[in-house]
Amino acid sequence: MRDVAVIGVGMNRWGELWDKSLRAIFVESALAAMDDAGVDHIDAMLIGCMTSGLFTEQEHLASLLSDYLAVNPVGAVRVESACSSGGNAVRLGLIQVASGAADIVLVGGVEKMTDVDGGGATAALATAADTEYESYHGATFPALYALIARAHMERYGTTREQLASVAVKNHENGSLNPRAQFRNKLTIEDVLNSSAVADPLRLLDCSPITDGSAAVILAPVEMAKKLGKPVVKITGSGIATDSIALHSRDDLTYLKATERAAEQAYAQAGIGPKDVDFAEVHDCFTIAEICVTEALGFFERGQGARAAQAGETSRNGKRPVNASGGLKSKGHPVGATGVAQIVELTEQLRGTAGDRQLKSPRRGLAQNMGGTGGSTTVHILEVTP
Amino acid sequence: MNTSPRYWREIPQRYRLEGGRCTTCGKIHYPPRLICPECKGRAFETVALPLDGKVLTYTVVHVGPSGFSDETPYALGIIELAGGVRLMSQIVDVDLESLKVGMPVRMEFRCIQKEGASGLLCYGHKCVPA
To answer: What global pTM score does this model have?
Structure first.
């Protein structure tokens, strides 16, 4: 297997992009990634997208997007695993380069979510749950994460204020990110006083509905070394599934697929959780970031909320989490999120993250999950100056 | 547009709360499965689930999906039935302020939703305080 590097990244501002189509949003970031890498062709393309069919009545994205990116004919595949579609696309692109099947692979993620109304978006996202045994009964994603939050609060004494501290931190970070959908800062009171969505979660505990795309170019490390930029290598990759229905899990508060995917990525990179300088994780809801940081081994079980409130995951803390603003502030175009995490890690490791730049990090981790944790990918990136 | 077979084939589980008991390891699965995740056994017998259980965790939904938006606020919970089987259910006929983790409930046959443009009435179980 060959070592693989990220040689190009591309991403535009996320938000409610009424004037841009799905294909335009994708092509903009894909071209930016190709320009950043300095490549004029690609050997293969992977597209992470959850449900363009329900959001825009457009499927067959591999062909649509390769056509509009002007890279036909090319080996292109669309990858779906709910909100971890992007992370899964990254992993499959990595495997193509590592195996020698392709040299230059474009991995993109895209979602156009605002062409349907709020009820339509909620229903489309609910297809990431068990349609017949969760959504059938009126479960929404905020409701499912609320069930996790309640269980976490009962078991570990996690408080409403601790949950809110995650949103406050991520908006603080996102205020420094020119691509973020919401750059406003929040207070704990703002979160606690926002409208109820699914008790105990409130509006400002939830990531938003977002249009957006992100793209990265993967290539062999040997090729990356010739480009005259810091070499950002993918040193670990892991993937795992868990039951799609929350009620089928033994422990409602623990993300087993995240633990398993992280174990694989740590083992491949030859490191442990303590060796990670910073992380981009899947904070689709405030409780999610807490559960994820526990499952990644950053904190003991039940300690994630306390750690967030104590500032351990703030940009000046021991291990910054979601310096980009995370899903909460940056936005969450579901299929693009996992790819955007790789964009953020790469820019931080290159030292080109602008106002939100962390102090010379060497090693970053990205965790991307689908549904309530039914699918998860974890990637570890390291820089050689 | 959804078709009636999609609804009809789930009737044994939804109307009669039928699960599948693995004849190898004894684990009861709801809904029934073709292979047991515990022991990989492939032989099952149909069992009716007990109707009594307790609330493991709950939420009150204030923003519902299409089809449920007229019903908000409504309570949803993960219920553990006697014997250990867990399922998702609405908790109804209850003061939403009185909901508690651990509260005893009983499953009752109810209308769950009206599906699609045709308004097909879909039934199943909801739980009420026991």
So the answer is: 0.97
